[in-house]
Amino acid sequence: MRGRTVKVLLIITFLLSYPQIIFAADKGTIDSGTTAWMLTSTALVLLMVPGLAMFYGGLVRTKNVLGTMMHSFVAMAIIGVLWTVCGYSLSFGKNILGGFVGWNGDYFFLNGIDDRITKGVPEYVLAMFQGKFAIIAPALISGALAERVYFRGYTLFIVLWFLVVYCPLCHWVWASDGWLYNAGASGVIDLAGGLVIHVSAGFSALIVALFLGRRHGYPKTTMHPNNLVMTLMGAGLLWVGWFGFNAGSTVQSGLDTARALTMTQVSAASGALTWLIIEALAFQKVTSLAFVSGILAGLVAITPAAGVVKPIGAFALGALSSIACFYALKAKTKLGYDDSLDCFGIHGIGSGLGVLLLSFFIRDSWIADAAAEVGNGWSIWKQLLIQMKGIGATITLATIGTLVICFIVEKTVGFRLDEQRELTGLDQSLHGEHGYGLVNSEILS
What we know:
Blueprint: H1 2-27, H2 32-59, H3 65-92, E1 94-96, E2 101-103, E3 117-118, E4 121-122, H4 123-141, H5 151-174, H6 194-212, H7 228-247, H8 255-283, H9 288-302, H10 311-335, H11 343-357, H12 364-374, H13 380-412, H14 419-424, H15 426-431
Antiparallel strand pairs: 1-2, 3-4
Helix pairs in contact: 2-3, 2-4, 2-7, 3-4, 3-5, 4-5, 4-6, 5-6, 5-13, 6-11, 6-13, 7-8, 7-9, 8-9, 8-10, 9-10, 9-11, 10-11, 11-13
């Protein structure tokens, strides 16, 4: 009797679970290892946003620390909403407008992906992972306009830049029918946003800096960082988060993931050490600011290349990027434009260098795979031409789009802060707060 009861219960349990088993099979199989890594990577990339806020916040003057950090944090909300509503669709939908951008009605408000699994990962996770990239891209530009813009002007700027510059670039480079994704024999190589994020943000930053003009007193007045300790901590968070940024972009948990993570570490360390050596030779001392600048130079250079180069290539890209960025910052001083926190000098120059020079450091196994797919249609020089095409397209869209957006923002809600509010500082004049509590406003500098 007891045995029959057990059999009946087992049959009932199977029948109740049977529809769920069939339903799950229709959706595809989840790879728990890859999904776990992609969830971790998504969190790591989001961690980079407060890291960036700390990095930038420590570099500005005391009276602007909160306002500057708000530029990074508000992107988490504004772009977070836009990405869910339409950004994912514009970036990864099918070609519309002649391939300028994409669209997929299923991606509107993410309505159509509730039970969809892609590459063994719930598409919700992939959408959120990409959404974190979209958040940090416009936040990077805030370094060029620090200490001199209306908050309302900045928020409108990042909305328009996201729609006009970021989403089309993302579609061109990463969507399966994007024209740069399919350029030449192998498509443009950009693992984690060398073009889509750093070159676009860097050149947009240059346009914004030129459009707004210099801060009052620059360069005659010395504008010391208010808290380099916070900047160091921010740089540390960026370095850690970058492992999710690059290794997560492989969308797997395997050999390619290990390669991307390793190249990220090697290039960051190489960039930091190279900048310290340059500064020691030039000034007979090393500074914390030099160290964090070198970290970023190495990280932005390896971002497009982490999936295709070996350690020697990562070491070379980190070192060469630090050298190029060091002299780019010196050139800024001579040219006199006010890119407040050197977004163009680091992100535009460093990552642009990585996009181009990766062609000379591609590992043999990747070349063999490419040759197997396209026969004799691939070569280093052909790949370099494709990378140059990607650079040219990115710079063109970023510069023209950003210039138009700047005019729109200035003529509608206002962009450049008036002189009195700028002298008072963003924290008090725009937010009614002080970043350091009871600090007397009269001694803020």
